[in-house]
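Hi, does anyone understand the following?
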Amino acid sequence: MYKKLVFFLILAFLTSSLSIFSKQNIEENKRRFKLAQSFEKIGEYKKAFEIFEMLYAGEPNNPNYFGGLERNMLNLKMFEELAAHYNKRLRDGKFNLNVLGRLGEVYYQWGKTEKADSVWNSITETNPKRTVNYSFLANVLMRNRLYDRAVEVLLEGRKILRNDALFEYDLANLYFWKREYVKGVKEYLKIFRKNPKTYSLVENRILGIFPDDDAELDVIAALISEEIKNNKNNQLYRLLANLYFINREYSSAFREYINLNRILNAQGKEILSFANRVLNEKMYKNSAEGFEYIKVNFPDMKQITAACYGLAFSYEKAGSPAEDEGRNNYIFLKADSDYQEKNQYLLKAIGEYEEIIRKYPDTIWAMRSYLRIGEIKLNLTFDPDGAVESFTKIVNLSRDSMLTREAVLKIGDSMLAKGDLEQAEKKYDEVIGTEPKNELYYQALYKKSFVNYLNENFSGAVEIANNILMQQPPKSKIYNEVLELLMFIEENEKKDENALREYVRAEMLI
């Protein structure tokens, strides 16, 4: 009994010791593995290789260890040793696609292209009826930027397996990488034909390309059109419309949106979507065409008021100066033919806004239309009296709204344009007295400062400007304008106050 007890105690001790040793060994290997990874990250490949070599010798079946070993042998260009390593793995085991692929890569990077081809060819030759072998080899070739060869392998696979529907995703991606967009689109259309649920993927890929010229775009569009005839899937109409849109072929896109709207019986909603998108692109003549189509063909649609407003706004923007064209330059171009064309668009805009006011009086659309007419007359057709009349209509429609207070501010601007500084300041004070401290409030405050400047009350202008700068962050819209006015006054007042007064009188005349 005593001997048995001693035996079990010794056995327990040894088991415990081995367990502790095993845990220590595992923790040590983890530490070494992390150290090797760190060396590899900073480019110390030799040190990383030595650690991985030791880890691999202890656990040759650990994928982290043999993966690290092989990576760093490749980093160190140990091609001969790595080739021998892979050949040994092939001799010791069964047919292994991954090892064959890597062995071919070693030979290829080593410069032994014939040996690389021989190894890679064996992947498909060993079992030519196995689909996965072609996909695997193509991915290996793509990894080594051998795109032409990858295409050849996949096309060969289709031929041998007698299945033209294989490898669409791989071929589509390869063709796009090679900028052979027509071939790529053919493959993506096959994918969609097989599974319509892939539409989002197909659309994202096709709309992500930019054909090299109009001829290539026409061929791609023709492919989609032909697919529409055979497939009859409504989503393809949208794909074609969006393809034209993203390539800035807005007239063609509009034609396809009309088709899409008809096929879906969308009652103008698809046309409205097109018009709003092209308006955001600042292609105002194209957006006007879209909104006009809705107005004529879908007068009873729910969003007709918004469409009519969009039409008027499109005409207004088509008749306004370009963003890089100063308003002052525009003023002095009245005799220019470009100005005459723009002015025709402005007159059309006013006519459309007035039609909204007649059809939808006492609505927010009427108030917005009065505001736009006032803006046009104040800033572009140079009719401050007409602008005051239009802005006053808003005030009469509603005494308490954001648009009302904006209209009061604009009346002040119109009075300023007429040279009536007293009335202008009254309107700005009205906004300041009723508006919370928001953007409109600070605009009115800045303009009050400017009126003081024009009245040659420089101290009053400076005081107001400083007050704004103390309350507004430097990133605000108005900050730079206020700062510019303040610096101009202070610098020139110090130099010669009389000269500054003469300058202000000249500015008043302008």
Observations:
- The CA atoms of residues 28 and 304 lie 74 Å apart.
- The radius of gyration is 38 Å.
- The chain has a mean pLDDT of 88.
